[in-house]
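Study this chain:
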Amino acid sequence: MSDDFPLPEVDQTNKPFWDGLSEGRLLYQKCNDCSHAWLPARQECPKCLETDYTWTEASGLGVMTSWVVYHTAFIPAYKDRLPYNVAIVKLAEGPQMATNIVGETDYSKFSINHPVELVIEKEHGFNVARFKLNYAE
C-alpha cells in the first residue's frame, strides 16, 4: 500500500454514501421536493437547490455512458495498474457516477449503453463501488 494513494475525504455530507458501501449497499441522494436523483453527495439538490433529500438504495444496475483507458499514470500511485479504465455509469435510477469497470481487460468489449452491475471492492480500507459488464441482459 502506497502512502501517497489518494483516499476519499469522508465528511458529514458524503458519510452516508461511504457507510452504505461498508454495509454492501450503493446509496444515492433523491430530492424530496422535485424527485431529482444524484451522485456525488452534496448538501442541496443540483436541480432545484432544495435541501430536503433522502438517501436511497440503488439497484446496482446501470449502463456505461462513457469511459477512458489510461496507459500513462498521471497519478504515481496508479502506475502498477496500467492500463486501467475510468468509466461513467448511469444507474438505473438516474444518477451517474465515475467508477471503474472490473473483470474485463478486453476494452473492445466496452460500448455505450452496455449493461453493468455493481461490484463492491475493498481498497485501502474503503469499500468502493465498481461495476462489471453484465452479459445477461
